Amino acid sequence: MDYAPRPEDVRFLLDAVLGASQQLARLAPFAEVDADLQAQVLEQAATFVGEVIAPLQRDGDEIGCRLEGGQVHTPPGFAAAYQAFVEGGWPSLSAATEDGGQGLPAVLEAVLYEWLAGANHGFTMAPGLLHGAYECIRHHASDDLKARYLGKVATGEWLATMCLTEAHAGSDLGLVRTRAVPQANGCVRVSGTKIFISGGEHDLTPNIVHLVLCRLPDAPAGPKGLSLALVPKVLDDGARNAVQCERIEEKMGLHGSPTCVMRFDEATGWLVGEPGRGLAAMFVMMNAARLHVALQGIGLLDAAWQKAHAYAQERRQMVAPGADRASGPSLIAEHPAVARVLDTQRAWIDGGRLIAYRTALQLDIARHAEDAKAREAAQQWCSYITPVLKAACTQQGFDGASACLQVFGGHGYVREWGIEQILRDARVTMIYEGTNEIQAIDLLVRKVLPDVGAGFAATLLALRDELDASRDVDADAQRRLAQLRYLTTQIAMAAHAQPRLPYELADDYLRLVMVTLLAWAWARIEQAPGAGEAHARAAAAFRRWVLPEFDMRAAIIKKACEPQG
Amino acid sequence: MDYAPRPEDVRFLLDAVLGASQQLARLAPFAEVDADLQAQVLEQAATFVGEVIAPLQRDGDEIGCRLEGGQVHTPPGFAAAYQAFVEGGWPSLSAATEDGGQGLPAVLEAVLYEWLAGANHGFTMAPGLLHGAYECIRHHASDDLKARYLGKVATGEWLATMCLTEAHAGSDLGLVRTRAVPQANGCVRVSGTKIFISGGEHDLTPNIVHLVLCRLPDAPAGPKGLSLALVPKVLDDGARNAVQCERIEEKMGLHGSPTCVMRFDEATGWLVGEPGRGLAAMFVMMNAARLHVALQGIGLLDAAWQKAHAYAQERRQMVAPGADRASGPSLIAEHPAVARVLDTQRAWIDGGRLIAYRTALQLDIARHAEDAKAREAAQQWCSYITPVLKAACTQQGFDGASACLQVFGGHGYVREWGIEQILRDARVTMIYEGTNEIQAIDLLVRKVLPDVGAGFAATLLALRDELDASRDVDADAQRRLAQLRYLTTQIAMAAHAQPRLPYELADDYLRLVMVTLLAWAWARIEQAPGAGEAHARAAAAFRRWVLPEFDMRAAIIKKACEPQG
């Protein structure tokens, strides 16, 4: 009953639908990364995830992490598995070769992290921030810091954290109080308490590199006064730095990952990037991290789907409508209510994947395209679509896991089958890396509305052009893209008289965008060479059960934008 | 932060909106149960639930139940609290006075159980099946069995269980294998293993009365071969019967209630009702039980709302749109996304309550009205509306608790605030007493479609007649009632060509009915004397964010009913 990655499903989406190989071949660093090499990497990743990581899932939940004398012990097997993960070169999959990485595309790394989350969400948290930390150090740290930390972080020899949240500063990072006091020797002394630090302390690596959002003594209040400091657990001379794990949280799930309260007592650190530019440096980490959280939602949903699908192919209850009564009880997969759940979740999994993999490909293009305009367009895509994916895929990860749990009836509610763990683990993805409500506001208020939707519309043109208006489903998707554009304008106009309106409608707008993207995705998937019977069923389920949300969200938005009596 | 019942909220709905006192006064047994007496009962219930039951919630989850040597130990304080519950006469609230009960209306009992679930869902499971067992024994048991068991069950001195599910027989009870072999002395020997038995074993009462679905040796296969046996834990002579708790389940939540695997080894029992009529006898229990499960959903949602509301009135993050920047971060309650969650959940809580209390009143009418037609009409209402409430209120209990958890951000995911427990506890209500999918099929396929919706339409006429078409919101609700009727006919017609269709659409249909009922509820609540500012906000939230689901479900149904190419 362990989750098993299915590389053939993913390769169909990458090769037959997205033409990933052709796109990557145009980028200089990936000239050699042909379809065969990609397939090989994915096969190896699938084997590693399925054989090494997935079997640790249950103990990760039931035994979990414990804190003893300031030391965090991860669940049985995690340390050895992490060691194997490093030795396999997986942490450095997309890191540059000059930093000791594999130099492979971000899109392959995205697939790896989706699978890791499906196999073992708790374990995945450990290396989950590594790549973001690597990018952050690479782009913002001094040469000296790079020389000391970049290689170790690139290879995963040392793990990293993002220390943002404080007890009183969650969504509002402008309230962060942790102080960093510059010293004569160029370091800073960092003091403060951070909460919700995933992997703040553990026994997986000999050192941990904390990236800490903090405030210099003379800094202004609010987000513009924030700086970023690198604070290692262990200093260059081997001495322990003044960083302590004070507590690990008792959580609803994700017991395989220690969520730490970290106290910094004049800990030694060094600024990364300019003073007052801490949030900007952090954002490098956050965009990649948000895409990975979206992929966690998809991975968790796929894990839940695999369990429910297997159960529905074994369990018999009642004669399904239309089935032969003489054959006795039917497989529950044959009951319409169960088939609907399974097909609908597949529509979300493969549709969500296609959009997420497309976004990961855009990350590769944004980093490596020769043409500045192409880089800019790809960057724009990531900026708009990442919050949509983060919110929608994590919500579906939770809601869909709940629907899959329901397939088990009472058996779903007991630990034995492992499905309730997925639901508990998945819940956090709607919260961390910016709550889903923050994602919606980021999309609509911060990104789309400032230019009245012009930039967003331009970005979405690429999708319209990939559709063929002579086919019904394509034409339908195009019509929805146009309607989305119209509704964007409506919100922009109504916001003049009702300044709270965009904040009220942000969730509806984000859902509208996601359903539109899914309409594009299913038009593409269904017609790709090699699409199978399961794809046809998922496409039909999408149109019957998911797509109607579009009109509902559109109606909510239209009504709210009517002039107020 | 403990949940506290708010009797004034409930009395507004009962008195000002439903006119419960006038309706009850027309029923002979309640001639004396005036508004003052009702108010007094509710005040006492609120105090008891708030002071005695709510404080045990956390230990119920964290310490939970344990099985040692066949004996189940309930969480600290549960046994004493249950003793106080019995001494207060709460288990027997609506039992007949001749059986030792209080003879009060079912609607008051419904409120009590909603509050109990909000305060402590795990504790509530213990007495939760008592009233159903009482009704079952009262209507179906022999005089001898009644003399021995009815009084003890009526007063709650002994607790009761429903033993239905077996490992291979969940939703499909026709597969039940437990055998009952008649003996010369009139008893039966019951053998088999039942799973998911809430309170199958515990330390709350000296005896436990199991009502066991079983099969006589000569019984036909399937549901018509099922009989019901009463099997006590302790026999009349004080000897222990051959009933053992083999295991208690490790569950996602509801740790305060032991979910037992019960083994019967030729245990002594007696048939309740006719052989082969076991399901019919059980249904007496199940209809009342399903309404109570709906009320659990509402109670849990209200508990989640109370926590989120309190937190939103304390926590400050970011300046809300339109707020004065100079005053610093706003209360999160002032942020539109948070206000939307809180107002929408209130719309579900008070709207759901109104429909549930109306249904409980119909239970009273069905039992006690002098006029047979009035009894029949009330019975019809309960038959149609109970599955709607069970499915929709429990789904909202879970989804709404998740929305309330989100208000806490990361703090919602840790145990400390207690909100994640509500989410874990609430999940089971969507499964037990018939999964929500079974409820939907029960409504549409078994009850509505057989007469092409005529009986259901007749039942809903009562709602139409309570609305005043000269008011906009009333006219809107009436229009939806008419549309519901039209769509019912559409499904009935389309089902001829597509026999699976009603099963596929059952969930959409049930949701459509629920949103229609809520439209009626909010038209009534908003215009009742004494409706306040919070009601106006919830009514507006209902119309903005909940009501649009009606058109979405209607569109799904319409599209599915189109003739197939």
TrEMBL record, chains A, B:
Limits of the Acyl-CoA dehydrogenase/oxidase N-terminal domain: 38-157
All residue ranges annotated as the Acyl-CoA dehydrogenase/oxidase C-terminal domain in the record: 276-441
GO terms of molecular function: flavin adenine dinucleotide binding; oxidoreductase activity, acting on the CH-CH group of donors
Pfam (any one): Acyl-CoA_dh_N
Keyword Flavoprotein (UniProt): yes
Residue ranges of every copy of the Acyl-CoA oxidase/dehydrogenase middle domain listed in the record: 162-266
Cofactor field: FAD
InterPro entries xref list: Acyl-CoA_Oxase/DH_mid-dom (IPR006091), Acyl-CoA_Oxase/DH_mid-dom_sf (IPR046373), AcylCo_DH-like_C (IPR036250), AcylCo_DH/oxidase_C (IPR009075), AcylCoA_DH/ox_N (IPR013786), AcylCoA_DH/ox_N_sf (IPR037069), AcylCoA_DH/oxidase_NM_dom_sf (IPR009100), Diverse_Acyl-CoA_DH (IPR052166)
Keyword Flavoprotein appears in the UniProt entry: yes
Keywords of this entry: FAD, Flavoprotein
N-terminal signal peptide: none
Family designation: Belongs to the acyl-CoA dehydrogenase family.
Protein name per Swiss-Prot or TrEMBL: Alkylation response protein AidB-like acyl-CoA dehydrogenase
Taxonomic lineage: Bacteria, Pseudomonadati, Pseudomonadota, Betaproteobacteria, Burkholderiales
